[in-house]
Amino acid sequence: MIGRCGAISAAHGWLLKLPGGDMTLWADDDGLPLAMRQQGGGGLEIDYRFEFDRPITPGWLSSDPPAGDTPVAPDED
Among 40, 39, 33, 41, which residue's Cα sits nearest to residue 8? Predict the structure, then answer.
């Protein structure tokens, strides 16, 4: 499996061959994704990790601009 994703009893993996590169997906017995690796040209590899039911730090999903930033009006068509 790609890396360590916590305590699980079993992981199931799938390899998807795509024109731009391979994609490997690992999931637990319930079908929830644990990890995914996307491989592209030139040796590029992108690893994704999935975690569920984690607490969210206050402010992470805020639409307020960070301190010191100023909102900009959208372009007019």
Answer: 33
Specify the amino acid at residue 19. P
DSSP-derived pairing of the beta strands 33-39 and 45-49: antiparallel
Q: What percentage of the chain has pLDDT greater than the value 70?
A: 88
CB of 23 closer than 8 Å to CB of 38: yes
Please state the pTM of the whole predicted model.
Answer: 0.58
- Whether 61 maps to a domain, the answer reads no
Residue 30 lies in a domain: yes
- The C-alpha torsion from 77 through 64 and 52 to 25, rounded to 10°, is 30
- For residue 34, the enclosing domain spans 13-49
In this prediction, the residues of the chain whose per-residue pLDDT falls under 70 are 1-8
